[in-house]
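Contributing: when you submit paired examples, paste them exactly as shown. First protein:
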Amino acid sequence: MKWVIPMVLILIIASLGSALYYMMKGKGNSSRMVHSLMLRIGLSLALFIGILLAHYLGYIEASGIRVGVN
C-alpha cells in the first residue's frame, strides 16, 4: 500500500496534465481532453474506494493523530 497510493496520485496528476495539454492544443474542443478528465475522475474514485476498502480490510490503519486535542 505504500507504493500503490503514491503511484495512483502520480497517474492522476499526469492525466490532469495531459488534459491541460490537449485543452491548450485543441482550444478546448478536443475529445482527448474529455477522455483525460474522465480518466482522472475514474482514478480518483478508484483511489478513494480503494483506501476505504483497504482500511476496512485492515491493510492500512488510522495513524491515531487527534485533531484539536491539546
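Second protein:
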Amino acid sequence: MRLGVAGAAVLAFGPLAAGADPPAPALAKAVEDLEPYFTPQEKFRDVSRGKPLPHSLPDKRKREVGLTRETWKLEVISDPDNPTKIRSPLTQKDGTAFDFDGLMKLAEKHAVRFAKVMTCLNIGCPLGMGLWEGVPLREVIWLTQPRDNLRRVFYYGYHNDDPQQMFRSSLPISRVLEDPFDLPPVILCYKLNGKWLDSERGGPVRVVVPEAYGFKSIKWLTHVVLTNLYHANDTYAEGNNDVDTWLKTFAATLSVPHEVKPGAPIPITGYAQVGLAGLSKVQVSIQSNVAKRNDDGDPLATGNWTDAQILPPPKHWSDLPGGKIIAGTPGFDTATGQPHTWPMRLMKVHWATLLPGLPAGKYILRTRTIDEKGIAQPMPRPFQKSGHSAIESVDITVKS
C-alpha cells in the first residue's frame, strides 16, 4: 500500500521513480485530480464584509474612494485617544498621505514575498493558498518618525464611509518592527501569485500577517493607527475570539468514496494546513460506526491510526507565472525553485492513502495530524475560538 501511494505521488508530481510499483489506478486518478496547489485569485473563497461589498462597487466609485492603484491613499497617524509621539504623520488633510507610487518606490528595495495559506478563524477550511508580495509595514511606519509611547498598531480598510461597518485588527508594535522565529514580515500586500491584487482579494493594498488567521489581514487598507493602547482592540474581540492565535496544524480530506464494494481498496486524498507547530505525520483511522466508545465518549482513544503519505512538493506550481516559484522567494532554492524543507510552515500540503478493502458495513473515516513536537490533533489548542482543530469524520458505506 505504501509503494502504491508513493508511486501515485510521484506520478502526479514528477517522473515515475525507477523500480517503483505501479500505483493503484484509483489512487493515481485521485491524486491527479487534486486541486491546484496555488489558488487562482478568482477561486479564493470570499468572506468579505460590507454592505455593499467594497469589491462590488462600480469602477467610478472605486476610483473616488481610493480602491484603485491610481487613487489609493494610506493615512498613518497617532491614536488621538492613546497618542503616540510621531514627527511626521501621513494624512489626507496635509497632503502627505502615502500613495501607491510611494509603495512601489519602497518595493524597489524592500519588496518581499512568501507563501501562506489564508484561513478564516471561524470556518476552519482554508480560503485559498497564495504567494503574497508586498512591502513590510514597518517601512511605512518608520516614515512617520515615531518617537515614544508606541505599544501597538491597529489598522482598518474602506468600509463604505460607515463607522458601523468598520472591521479593525491590531498587532503589538514589536511584531511589526521585528520578525520573530524566522517568520516573514507583516506586509502591505499588492500582489498575489505574481499578479496585481484584485479588488475581491482586498486590492489595491491589504495587510497580510504571515502566521495569523485571515481576520488579521485586513482588506482595502486605508488607515494605520499608532497607539499607546496596552491591549488589542480588534473587531473580532467582540465576537468571543482569541485575537492573538496563530495558524494551527490540522488535516482534512479532499476526496473520499462514500460508497465502495466489499474488498475494494479505498483511495483517499486530503490536505494538511501546516501551522507554526509544523507537521511530521498525517494519519487516518477507519472504524465501524458501531464501535464502542470509551467511558468519556472519545472515539479517538480506540482509533487504529495509520500513516498516510505526505505528497512531495509539486514540480509545476499552478497559477504562478510559468508554473515556477518567483526567484528570491524565501524558503525556496533560487536555482531549482524547490523548497529547502518540506512540509513548510504556514502553507498546506496534500496527502494520500489507499485503505485496504473492508467487509460490508458502515464505517467512519477520521484524519489527524502529528506536529513536529509529536502532539496529535486536536491538541495542543483544542478550542474553536483559538482556531480550527476538530477531527474530521467522514462516513463510508461498504456494500455490494
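If you have annotations for the second protein, write them as plain sentences, like these:
The helical segments are 2-13, 25-32, 59-65, 100-110, 137-141, 173-177.
Residues 2-13 form the longest helix (12 residues).
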